[in-house]
Amino acid sequence: MDTWDSPCLAGLGVNPAAVAAEALSLLQLPDSIELSALSEDGIKTLDAALAVDQPAILADFLSYAASRLSVLSGGTADAPAAVTTFRDLLGRRLTPPDADRVDAFIEHALTLTTWAAPAEPDQERFGPLARGYLTLVLQGRRDDARAFVQDALRRGTSIRSILLDVLEAAQREIGRRWQIGQISVAQEHYCTAVTQMVLTDLYPRLFTGTPSPHRLVAVDAPGSLHQVGLRMVVDLLEFEGWETSYVTSTDPGDIVDHVAQHQASVLAISVSMPGQIPHVQALIAAIRSDPRARDVKVLVGGRPFTVAPELVSAIGADDFASSAADAVTTCNRLVQVTS
Ligand code: B12
Q1: What is the per-residue pLDDT across 94-125, written as a single tens digit (0 to 9) for each?
Q2: What is the pLDDT averaged over residues 55-83?
Q3: pTM
Q4: Which of 24, 37, 220, 330 has the fewest CB atoms within 10 Å, i.e. is most exposed?
Q5: Which atom of ligand 1 approaches the CA of 307 most closely?
Q6: What digits encode the pLDDT tens for the residues 174-219?
Q7: Which of 63, 220, 226 to probe ligand 1 with, by most ligand atoms within 8 A of CB?
């Protein structure tokens, strides 16, 4: 039975696991866990991108998938050829006019796809502290990495700079190196776990002790395991004088209640995977329909909005920010507008 949470393709009889297995066999690739997951993610991303009519979302996935396919196949598989195989398989399962609509959508996404590997960070932005921290975590030296950050603080580096120039920069670089196969998934998990520990080390220093008129409630989209980005946003806002809180429930009713109880000026929602967009749209609709919460400004962030900015207003959000620093500027602007 097909149980996947699909806005489009499941209703048309497409099963991601079955398409993925057949594609890997036609491409003469092993049916490994990682290749199967990547192939299934491709179908699910196509589905999510179709649901919001954003080929840029699929294009972004294709450039990521091209790097991963190269890594996982030992450089033998060709991404454009793999896309052709998937298109053929979908064409055989779908009937007109759906088959033509899906095919035209993939064609459009291909015109937007950059097959190049993600660019190395700008050396000016990726300074000595980010490099030093990254070297230690990649060597598995967790305690030294934490001590390195404490030492930088003692020498006068600001919390803001630790968050933005060290941790955020290092996490992005870890992601890039994992994508191109320079580090393993185990190293990526280790590095992310150390960054979360450092964020916890910094936590007591975030509070200025001055009551703030501006309250922000933050929530991750349902099903998200990507919490580090939103945590950096919230921690920086707390440090910059906002009163912040998280809601761990993903139930729209709980979130509406929390926003109302805290009299929040801003609700910050993080979306990392395109499949989460319909849930976030439903959450924003729930917020807007409750008189206790409807005036809160909704700020969204995460990769789908970076690649398809039209989605921000399409799902009913007020604004978008692409980084923690940008989130502070945008939140301050949003409350100036309301007050
Ligand atoms: C660490 C990581 C994980 C960890 C997360 C651990 C954790 N506790 O957070 C784990 C291992 C769980 C994971 C799992 C997966 N991941 Co992952 N992951 C990453 C990675 C390497 C780093 C994420 C990170 O820390 N980024 C650094 C922070 C600073 O950036 P950020 O998350 O974008 O957040 C910033 C902005 O977007 C913005 N922002 C974010 N949220 C918000 C919210 C608001 C309101 C605002 C204003 C701003 C804002 O500000 C943040 C700070 O600058 C990224 C690669 C990357 N380069 O980002 C992939 C990445 C996000 N993952 C990806 C994928 C595909 C997956 C999996 C599907 C893999 C799989 N097949 O299992 C799963 C999905 C899990 C799920 N259900 O969510 C893809 C997404 C591809 C796409 N185009 O959709 C990425 C982009 C990898 C890539 N190179 O393409 N992942």
Answers
A1: 888 889 999 999 999 999 999 888 889 888 88
A2: 93
A3: 0.93
A4: 37
A5: 83
A6: 999 999 999 999 999 999 999 999 999 999 999 877 777 899 999 9
A7: 226
* Cβ count near 320 (within 10 Å): 19
Q: Tell me the CA–centroid distance for residue 227 and ligand 1, in Å.
A: 8
Strand partners, 319: 299
223 lines ligand 1 (CB under 6 A): yes
In 3D space, the residue among 283, 290, 291, 289 whose CA is nearest the CA of residue 267 turns out to be 283
pLDDT at 141: 98
- Residue type for position 242: W
Residue closest to 172 by CA, chosen among 209, 216, 122, 99: 122
- Is 175 near ligand 1, meaning CB less than 6 Å away? yes
Does 232 contact ligand 1 (Cβ within 6 A)?
yes
Nearest CA owner, ligand 1 atom 49: 301
Contacts 24+ apart (CB under 8 A), 121-127: 121/169, 121/172, 121/173, 121/176, 125/165, 125/169, 126/169, 126/173, 127/165, 127/169
